[in-house]
Amino acid sequence: MDKSPKVYAEEDLYALLRPLTNKKGMTLRSSIESPSCDVRIITSGGSTIPAHSSVLGSVSTVLEKILDRPRKHQYADKIVPILGVPCDSVFAFVRCLYSSRCTDEEMNKYGIHLLALSHVYRVPKLKQRCSKGLIKELTIENVIDVLQLTKLCDVPDLYVKCMKLVSENFKAVEATEGWKFLQDHDPSLELEILKFMDEAESRQKRMSKKIEERSLYLELSEAMECLEHIFTEGCTSVGPCDVEVTKNKEPCKKFCTCQGLQVLIRHFVQCKKRVNGGCSRCKRMWQLLQLHSSVCDNSHLCRVPLCRDFKLRREDPTKKGEHDGRWKLLVKKVVAAKVMSSLSLPMRKEATNVDTVKARR
């Protein structure tokens, strides 16, 4: 049995309305006291919704143009057909135009339709509200439907959220009816989703690689500082000739790195394979000393072994080819990591002090 068209009374619309405002935002009389409705909105089901042309025209330029069209009879009500969506969604849309707000319940029930209507009739604030509301309502089941709508309605924020949800839960999305419909009727969007997923995976790999590289450069930068510390002040077991080193000495702040370097230095001094170049640990120590010389700003006074010798060797025109582009890039990255570490140190200290104060409270 077919349902008869629903006719909305003015009281249905007034129940949830705020006081009317004009284009300048000044509050007018309440909508109940305003002139009688002079517009009839017709929905797909043949239902009628009464409204005021002054309100509709003030919030939507599209509706304003529709209402300004000439009529056959001057005193006849203006008719605005809003078709293609359920009549309750149209009524919720009209209520939002009057009250300038949209409840969570309305967003939950009619969010997709409200987004489409706000785009078609150019209601920016409602469109923005719908975009934020639909982001909260996104699920595996409705994400494809919302994604298709974002392409039609030009909602970039919602589009990105949909793409990320599909990318992160692709196996679950692939089993939905929406995805099957997409494969049959919109292969271009399917290809766009697959490209987005491939780019997202590539970005993740690049980011992971950059994080690993940054961590390596920070470790090398810290090792350079520890070399200066060991050969200038001395640490727990290794130090310069004129400084007495005892095991009772308290560990430094970067003891983990210092300890590894001290073990490497002791091996470097005692190793017999080093002469023939057959020891990988000695090669590593040699490279660290060479790297230190490349980043050191004060080779004349530096107490790290071979620092000045490496410096002079680099300046020798007959041996310019020994340092290729990769080595220069490594030096540049280590120096940059040292600068970034020194800049972030005050922030780390401040954060530590704040945590200490909170802990005392």
UniProtKB/TrEMBL annotation:
Q: Which residues form the BTB domain?
A: 37-106
What is the official name of this protein in its record?
BTB domain-containing protein
What metabolic or biological pathway is this protein involved in?
A: Protein modification; protein ubiquitination
GO terms under biological process: regulation of DNA-templated transcription; response to hormone; response to hydrogen peroxide; response to salicylic acid
Which SMART domains does this entry report, sorted A to Z? BTB, ZnF_TAZ
Any one GO CC term of this protein is: nucleus
Single annotated GO MF: zinc ion binding
Source species: Papaver nudicaule (Iceland poppy)
**Which CDD domains does the entry link to?**
BACK (cd14733)
Q: Which InterPro entries match?
A: BT1/2/3/4/5, BTB/POZ_dom, SKP1/BTB/POZ_sf, TAZ_dom_sf, Znf_TAZ
The protein's UniProt keywords, in alphabetical order, are: Metal-binding, Ubl conjugation pathway, Zinc, Zinc-finger
Family annotation (Pfam families): BTB (PF00651), zf-TAZ (PF02135)
